[in-house]
Amino acid sequence: TESLESRDAELFDAIRGELGRQRDEIELIASENIVSAAVMEAQGSVMTNKYAEGYPGRRYYGGCQWVDVAEELAIERATKLFGCGFANVQPNSGSQANQAVSLALLKPGDTILGMSLDAGGHLTHGAAPNQSGKWFNAVQYGVRRDTLDVDYDEIARLAEEHKPAMIIAGGSAIPRQLDFARFREIADSVGAWLLADVAHFAGLIAAGVYPSPFPHVHVATTTTHKTLRGPRGGMILTDDAALAKKFNSAIFPGIQGGPLMHVIAAKAVAFGEALRPEFKTYQKQVIANAKALGESLVEGGLDLVTGGTDSHVLLVDLRPKGVKGNATEKALGRAHITCNKNGIPFDTEKPMVTSGIRLGSPAGTTRGFGEPEFRQVGRWITEVVDGLATNGEEGNGAVEEKVKGEVAELCGRFPLYPQL
Ligand code: PLP
Questions:
Q1: Is Acyltransferase there in the keyword field (predicted)?
Q2: Tell me, what's the pLDDT at 365?
Q3: ipTM for the assembly
Q4: Could you tell me the CA-to-CA distances from 136 to 50, 106, 121, 290 in Å, in that order?
Q5: What pTM does this model have?
Q6: Distinct helix (H) and strand (E) counts, the chain
Q7: Which helix (H) or strand (E) is 278 found in, with range?
Q8: Whose CA is nearest to atom 3 of ligand 1?
Q9: Which of 147, 198, 229 is nearest to 311 (CA)?
Q10: Do 286 and 202 meet the contact criterion of CB atoms below 8 Å apart?
Q11: 144 alpha carbon to ligand 1 midpoint, in Å?
């Protein structure tokens, strides 16, 4: 009966602080979103108490009748959303979903072909410090120098040369649409498995505003917390019954123990929300907002990698202003605009410095921002960046203060979690 506030004041304060930060600042991190109160309610539910190793109807523990309902709902809704036959909703994260696919389909030492981190890929696609880079012979593809978009000719060439056991499509900073059919053609030409990691695009795909990996891929993995707007977690999708069995075994008992049933319950709620017509309207607005933000930044004199976006994410090339990603992330933070520094393709700066920032529209769009608000955000970013260009790393304090005030006013017009 004791409240969190009276039982643990320090932790309570940290949560209130985080709520305040989310309320008062503009969230532009492309991999983040703002879940509904219903999703949080499910995640904060008694399902956290339950052990449920195994799968619905085949558990290693008694008392699973209600968590089975939650997991079955999550699976049924996920397969409906993505138009595929099977879903494993137990991965604790996107990384663990990818790890399980590797465990199911590969042996240590096998060759994999994924997008390099520098070009926009994810750590789990074969980066050196990640398990995928240590336990497999990871060959990495990048983007074309002319378009800065995914280089399919290079993928075909590297596939032919290295004969990978698995090719991974997808990444964390790819503004344009992926051609899954082209990926499959290349995979088939060398007999490789094709995995699409659609973590970033999942919500757009579910809403039909971005190409679907099905029927082209053998398997797709995703996180559930980015554009899909669910709780933090992962998921594996496939149309192939035999593969589905392998992925189930790879998740449990392969790499995980008891599933996070409260998170799976929250996934079910989020997938239910994503099946509603409003979700399509939301995702259309996500793309329209990203485009509006991009146009506003270009008007302000910044460059965009690939010249724009067809998705929720923008990669901003700061070089026209002569400023760095790390200084820009900090300066925008001072103005209460949150984003992350990000290398741009062929970046000559170190990963902790970078020549770019990555921006995304999912969280702001959930909050209710439309194109006028995103254009305004673009103007504020330009002002803050111009302060850095003129004054060096400390930026223009007066401009940052002014923007911070205007950000507060905008955030006040779009209240977040008023019930909390
Ligand atoms: N795959 C891609 C493409 C991602 O962008 C991410 C997250 O950043 C992941 C996988 C990993 O997800 P998680 O952070 O849940 O492990």
A1: no
A2: 98
A3: 0.98
A4: 35, 9, 16, 36
A5: 0.97
A6: 16, 15
A7: helix 277-299
A8: 171
A9: 198
A10: no
A11: 23
